[in-house]
Amino acid sequence: MGRERDVVQQPLALTAEELVAVNPYNPDILHELENYVNDQVSSQKYSLDANLCLLRFYQFEPERMSTQIVARILIKALMAMPAPDFSLCLFLIPERVQMEDQFKTLIVLSHYLETGRFRQFWDEAAKNRHIVEAVPGFEQAIQAYAVHVLSLTYQKVPRSVLAEAINIEGLSLDKFLEHQVANSGWILEKGHGRGQLIALPQNEFNHPELKKSTGDAIPLEHVTRIFPILG
Amino acid sequence: MASYDYDYDDAQVGYDESSATNRSSSAAGQDLRYDPNFVPDSVKSFVVHLYRYIREKNVYEIHQMYESSFQTLSERLFKDTPWPSVDAVAHYVDNDHVFCLLYREMWFRHLYARLSPTLKQRIDSWDNYCSLFQVVLHGVVNMQLPNQWLWDMVDEFVYQFQSFCQYRAKMKNKTEQEIALLRQYDQAWNVYGVLNFLEALVEKSMIIQILEHEKEGLEQFTATDGYDYKGGSNVLKVLGYFSMVGLLRVHCLLGDYSTGLKRLLPIDISQQGVYTIVIGSHITTIYHYGFANLMLRRYVDAIREFNKILLYIYKTKQYHQKSPQYEQILKKNEQMYALLAICLSLCPQVKLVEETVNSQLREKYGEKMIRMQRYDDEAFAIYDELFSYACPKFITPTAPNFDEPLVNYNQDAYRLQLKLFLYEVKQQQLLSGVRTFLKVYSTISLGKLANYMEVDESTLRTILMTYKHKTHAVDSDGKVISNADVDFYIDDDIIVVVESKPTKQYGDYFLRQIVKLEGVINDMDRIKLE
């Protein structure tokens, strides 16, 4: 069993999540959860539930709050976009804490991502390297989010638009594209004399004809209602 | 029962601080002529009978006494005084420990509803809940109580917690004595204590497993309305069940929406259940479910459930006219229309809303909803107004630092949730403009649309991506769900608009008609022709 092997390899990881499941309202696990945040940062894992649980304890016992840990939770939440985790965390963080500079910066970064303004995002992130570089995988996670939004929006996206969104240019972008073509089904095309076009993989959002018609499907539970009559 | 209609009574004055002074002045004015030891004959008869019916496990009679006799007596004899003290009635009921705890629970509930509790009374009520829940959790209770009563216990427990937090957060007018009491009894209504009691009731009752077993046909719970027909006690099980709704509500009050929804998960709200038997529980469940989904940007889920319950209330409210909960039902009804107006302004999926509900909505908020589409300052003011009117009474669950100057912080939690909500609205402010154009074109070039919207092309691209991001929610499994009313895709620099065809649910329609026809045929069979 894979799970059991995981227990041996990463006792801390599973314990933290199990701890939350068993003790959602027991502040004795606060330190374990703080360690687990650091663990999520260093081993590129993520658990929203564990982090919300920790923020809950901070909300109940503000004197125990570590703003450094809160900042890490928020950065991890940004990396979880398009999920709304960042707002979910902010709902639990007192306003006076949100007024601190490092949090203001993160809120601005989140705002740019939420409104699709990737150029501003990357500019702002570059000005605050010390914050975001502390968390491994940050860039890649945001790039994945950018690709997600682009794939919802575009069938074919101009190279320049992609470059801006993922903040990769020139030779590095060629390499990135090469990788995506080989692994994710991207197709490079020639645009109308204005550079490259990239056909993104099809999904039901950029190719609506793929959308399954839900109109004619009836869930089994609904049909069971008439079983007594049919019998 | 009385608790529900006073549930949000502070909310009527909004977040106005005057409510604090109103309450404390009437607290001081608790009737001096009240003699806690005087037991009128009618009260004696009430406790004796209630005690007997509880011992006989006569749920029907208990329900009658609880729902109507208690109400009638309160109205007649205790309009503005508390009921006789528990010590004065104890010897009529063999000093039965559990009965006395139940009596005190009702005693406090009546006090909270009619008068205004002093700090000492708030603390005593907390103690009483601790004793009562401990008795239940230790499994020594063998009574059967009506669902309504069990719901009222959980509901009142959460209400008194919320009320205590609001009370404690208004520090400015506290007397020396009150502050001393607050410091001395710092465990009263402690947030961990509240959450752990609710959680313990869920755990100990095994309700989650029971509901799972029921799905597999191994056990009955919903089918018997939570009662045990073999004579076992329903108290722990049903308290555990309602505690899941209680947890949803507490988490919403704290701004922890996803945890709240998680606690509700074992209850399948797409079906009827024990939670729909008691109207107060039904409304509380859906109100908080919808609100949490609104805050999570899952507008379609919120719209669906608001629509269903608003239709239900519309059709059934006449039956509740005489109920003590009637006013509260109407109040929550209005609040949910306000929330529905917000949802539909952010996500105009009007086709999800049934015709009756829609026409009610237009009547109440039609004009405001048009103004909300403009996304100017006035529109934000309306979002603010509707949110403030309809949101839960958020709480700060912590005691103040008594060593620092004491200030009121009762609005902090509300202000934060409002601010973050309006922030979200602002992020979506340009989307309604895009919508308007997308509705009238089947294809349009980016350049042309940018021109119409008076923005440059790259800004338009960001607006279109925002539209996609905001209309596509991600569920807890990471699956992308479209909430979009109008959809589109971009091919290089051409926007292609996708017509959203409303998919008619014929299957469901036929299923319903089949059930209906069967009912009619059954009715006809039953008619005996002379």
Write a concise synopsis of the structure shown.
The complex is a heterodimer of chains A (231) and B (530). Chain A is mainly alpha-helical and 231 residues long. Chain A contains 15 helices and 3 strands.
Number of strands of chain B: 5
Helix content of chain B: 55-70%
Q: State the share of residues found in helices of chain A, binned by percent.
A: 55-70%
* Unreliable residue stretches of chain A: 1-13
Q: Give the low-confidence spans of chain B.
A: 1-29
What Rg of chain A do the Cα atoms give?
Answer: 22 Å
SSE order of chain B: HHHHHHHHHHHHHHHHHHHHHEHHEEEEH
Average pLDDT reading of chain B: 86
Total helices of chain A: the number is 15
Query: Judging by the overall fold, what is the CATH architecture of the largest domain in chain A?
Result: Alpha Horseshoe
What can be said about the biggest beta sheet of chain B? 3 strands, antiparallel
The number of distinct β-strands of chain A equals 3
Q: How far apart lie the N and C ends of chain A?
A: 43 Å
- Summing up helix and strand content along with how strands pair, one would put the structural category of chain A as mainly alpha
Strand order in the sheet with the most strands of chain B: 1-5-4
Please, what is the average pLDDT of chain A? Answer: 86
Assembly form of the protein = heterodimer
Overall 3D shape of chain B: globular
**What is the terminal separation of chain B in angstroms?**
46 Å
Q: Structural class, from helix and strand content of chain B?
A: mainly alpha
